[in-house]
Amino acid sequence: MSGTDLARLALSDGEGEPGPIVVLVQPQLAENVGSAARAMLNCGLSRLRLVAPRESRLSERAIAAASGADVVLERAEVFATLEEAIADCHRVYATSARPREMVKRVVTPRLGAAELRQASAAGERVALLFGPERTGLVNDDISLADTILSVPLNPGFSSLNLAQAVLLVCHEWFQAGDQTPAEEISYHGNRPATRGELINFFSRLEIGLEEGGFFQSPDMRPHMMRAIRNAFDRAGLTEQEIRTLHGVIYALRKAPPTPGRPRKGDREGAGDGVSGS
C-alpha cells in the first residue's frame, strides 16, 4: 500500500514519550535492514541500533529497501556487541518464535507494547531485540533481556522474516497509543442530513407511496411507514443524498397516476428534480 506524506513525517521520538529503540542483532542482509527501517517509520519509530551488521546500513540495497525511510538508516547506531547496544536501556524485550530452556517471562506483542509504553512514559529507555535472519536470537542474547516477546501465530508455521517481525511488534506499539476510531464515515465535504430534512423527505415519500397504491390496507400504513423510516435512518443519509432522493420521488410522480388516485401536489417539498451522486 502506498501512503507517504512527507509534510507529515512525524517521529514519536520527539513527541510525547520516546518510542522504543529497535535493536537488530547481527543482521545479514542490507535489504532486510532497509525493510526493517521502513517498517519502523510506518509506526512512527526511528531509533535503530545495529549489532555487528554484515553489510552497511547505508548501502544502495538498504536505502532502496527502505523506500523513503532513509532518516532511520542515517540515524542508526552501530555497536560491536549487544551488551554495548543496550547498556543505557532500562527495560529490554527480546523477540522469539520458539520456546527457550530458561525461566523467563513471555508476553504477547500487545501486552508488551502496553508495558513498554507505560515504562517509556515513566522516563525509562526501552528496547526491542530482533535476532539474525537465519537463527534468531541465541540464548545468550535472550538472557540479557527482561522479557521474551512472542507473536501468536500458526504453531505449525510461525516463521517470519526480519522486517515482518519488526512491523508486527512496532505496529502493536503504535496501536497502543493510537486514537483512530474503529469506524467512521468519510463525507467528502458533505454533511449528515438534519432531522428536519429527513422528516420532509419522509412526508413526500409517504405521499408518493399513497398515490402509487403502495398501502393496500389503511391499518398497515403506520407500521409500514415506521419500517421505511427506520430503514432510511440506518442508512445515515447525507444532505446530498436527501436531495437526490427528492429528485427520485419527483421523477416517479411524473408517471401516469393510478386510476382513481389523484396526485397531491407534484411540486411539494424542497429539492424537486435535484439529482446528485
Give a short summary of the structure.
The protein has 277 residues and is of the alpha/beta class. The chain folds into two domains: 6-177, SPOUT methyltransferase, trefoil knot domain (Alpha/beta knot, 3-Layer(aba) Sandwich), CATH 3.40.1280.10; 185-277, no CATH class.
Structural notes for this entry:
The chain is an alpha/beta fold and 277 residues long. It has 2 domains: 6-177, 3-Layer(aba) Sandwich (Alpha/beta knot), CATH 3.40.1280.10; 185-277, no CATH class. It is 40% helix and 10% strand. It has 10 helices and 7 strands. It has helices at residues 30-42, 60-66, 70-75, 82-85, 109-121, 139-142, 162-177, 195-211, 221-235, 239-253; strands spanning 21-25, 48-51, 77-79, 91-95, 106-107, 126-130, 147-149. The protein has a 7-stranded parallel sheet with strand order 3-2-1-6-4-7-5. β1 (21-25), α1 and β2 (48-51) form a beta-alpha-beta unit. α5 crosses α7 and α8 runs parallel beside α10 (239-253). The protein is elongated. 30% of the residues are buried. It is found in: Cytoplasm. Residues 21-171 form the tRNA/rRNA methyltransferase SpoU type domain. It comes from Stella humosa. One of its GO terms (molecular function) is tRNA (cytidine(32)-2'-O)-methyltransferase activity. Catalyzes the formation of 2'O-methylated cytidine (Cm32) or 2'O-methylated uridine (Um32) at position 32 in tRNA.
